[in-house]
Amino acid sequence: MINLSLKELSEGLKQKKFSSVELTQFFLNRLDLHNSSINAFITIDKDKSLAMAKHSDEIIKEGNQDYLTGIPIAQKDIFCAEGWKTSCGSKMLDNFIAPYDSTVISKFNAVGAVNLGKTNMDEFAMGSSNETSFYGNVKNPWDIKTVPGGSSGGSAAAVAGRLVPAATATDTGGSIRQPASLCGLTGLKPTYGLVSRYGMIAFASSLDQAGPMCHTAEDCAAMMNVMSGHDPKDSTSIQRAKENYLTGISDPIKGLKIGVPKEFFSEGLDPEVEKIIERGINEYKKLGAEIVEISLPNNHLSIPVYYVIAPAEASSNLSRYDGVRYGYRTKEYDDLMEMYCKTREEGFGEEVKRRIMIGTYVLSAGYYDAYYLKAQKIRRLISEDFKKAFENCDVILGPSAPSVAFPIGEKKEDPLKMYMQDVYTISTNLAGLPGLSMPAGLMNELPVGIQLIGNYFSEAKLLNIANIFQMNTDWHNLSPEEFK
Fold it and tell me: Of the residues 49, 56, 76, 128, which is catalytic?
């Protein structure tokens, strides 16, 4: 059961091999058995999940089954779900029960998918290792002494440990692709605006984007069919015709031009990871693709630009957490100002406070032009680099992360080392482009991911290219020994 794809699970439900209640109970039993060892979930509500499963069985019985009807899906705890605690991994929202559904949640509810629970995450999605969560760090199922990546580490660990067939995630600077790489999964960060951000707790509004985290590209395509689409509640949502991402997913890729940026294969990339990426490139050559060298000359500026823009937007977005309307409020205070200060001091973790301070500084009078405005100008240059690159290739290929999963605590006290984990992923967020990570091999028995970057709205092409790779390799079928 744990190795069945979403398509196989859907077919099993249709043929009455098992019911949604039975399937949901099976995975709830897996949670009882394994979740304590990896801390992948913040909230599990068996009664709610089983009630949803029972409703899904009625839908199937009536002959109205959709692709994901009756299938348990884990939801990152950044998505508001009515009646569920939605904490965003923070003490600040530890007591917050969402009064409404985010658009992503409502879309899954509409097709009859089952919410298996809310997954752990870096606090307010700020982190690359899932060590900043108020609920404790998540552990990588491949080696519980290592991190799963972040901020969507809970979703990644849950899917990698076969505790759930698929999960939602979000990506602000690599938070789908980097944990997908470290946990041996396929994760897709869509074009900015393709998936609604309504009801998704904001970190950096011009960068945040939701996407799926699954075992295969085909499963990601099925998830995208539900998640994508215009939403009038989200002013950044793109108005365009809805696609079926499963159509053409197995089309041949002969003649495809794959661009390989020379900047992605320089100092900082583990030599063994580089060998695995090169092996993946050779696999594509065998499949008929043409490899061309390209350049992204401003890619090295992505991290400094990101750590000006993202904290600036975070400082603005997180100003709403003041203890007045909802969330945590300090117990002892003498006046309103002291209540504000103590609430934010006690409610936010160290990394969140660090980024709020940076963001407030770069937006302050006298520094706005020097930092924030300059960063936005360089952001445009980074986007132009991609535009020029796509004149010579159909898709860009490179590593998803510079190394495999690293030991818990190794980089926590050195923010700069931690920030470098997103060196290959941040530029796509700055440009608003889609990116996908998929398993490409093992190094020291830990997964390594290949990243594919496409032009705007090329998700179908990325999923097709990834699916062809997975039809000819077996890395996506591997699972951690302890969780088989």
Answer: 76
Residues of 317-349 as b/e, b for ≥16 C-beta within 10 angstroms?
bbeebbbeeebbbbeeeeeeeebbebbbeebbb
Helix (H, G, I), strand (E, B) or coil at 177: helix
Helix orientation angle between 271-286 and 459-472, rounded to the nearest 10 degrees: 90
**SS3 assignment, position 18:** coil
The one catalytic residue among 10, 19, 87, 151? 151
249 φ, ψ to 5°? -70, -20
Which positions ≥6 away from 378 have C-beta within 8 Å? Answer: 298, 301, 305
Is residue 151 among the annotated active site residues?
yes
Q: What is the pTM of this model?
A: 0.97
Distance CA 172, CA 407 (A): 23
Q: Is residue 461 within 8 Å of 251, Cβ to Cβ? A: no
| 3-class SS of residue 266 | coil
Assess whether 76 carries a catalytic annotation: yes
What is the DSSP annotation of 30-57?
A: HHHHHHHHH--EEE--HHHHHHHHHHHH
- Report the pLDDT value the prediction gives residue 275, as an integer from 0 to 100: 98
- Catalytic residue chosen out of the listed positions 56, 102, 175, 458: 175
Active site residue 237: no
- Which residue positions in the chain have pLDDT lower than 70? none
Rounded CA-CA distance 155/159 in Å is 6
